[in-house]
Amino acid sequence: xxxxxxxxxxAVADPRPGFFAxxxxxxxxLADLRADQYDLTTPCPEYSVxxxxxxxxxxxxxxxxxxxxxxxxxxxxxxxDVADGEWAAAWESADADFKKVWGDPSVLxxxxxxxxxxVPGAVASVIWTNELVLHAWDIATAxxxxxxxxxxxxxxxxxxxxxAVPAExxxxxxxxxxxxxxxxxxxxxxxxxxxxxxxP
Length: 200
Known about the structure:
Layout: H1 16-31, H2 49-67, H3 87-102, E1 111-114, E2 117-120, H4 121-143, H5 151-164, H6 188-195
Antiparallel strand pairs: 1-2
Helix pairs in contact: 1-3, 1-4, 1-5, 2-3, 2-4, 4-5, 5-6
């Protein structure tokens, strides 16, 4: 859903603080979900809140597995083992594994086998930070949550967005809609999600 064949460059020498901050935001968004919101449609129209919650838990599990040298294929696209309303607990468990693996600075130089090709861990972390931020925004927007976006979580995705996913083409192998124009002085999160085809 947020994959791209282009590899961004880390905006800072160590992008992990932003990576960890993005995960923390998404964990809080999941923790604040209510049962009456599970069937709501998200800005990813093919995904309900339930679908996206199951997906992001799987994403974080995959990030930990791949950071430790495992294959993308070892973790399913959706966390089908997680029951409704249990996403925050599942996230907390996955987050512990994620931060243990990515807490080791050597992971930044490790080769990570993304589906479209191998990249250094530092680059993979920027790609995944972007994915976590976008999906946190998707779920928060669908459920009316107000998020206090940490600057470090947005810095690398914002710095790399135009290189990672050019304005054209969109659709097909590039799973984003057309760029939504956003003023240059708009909040950083609005500029980021607009570039990825979401309407702030």
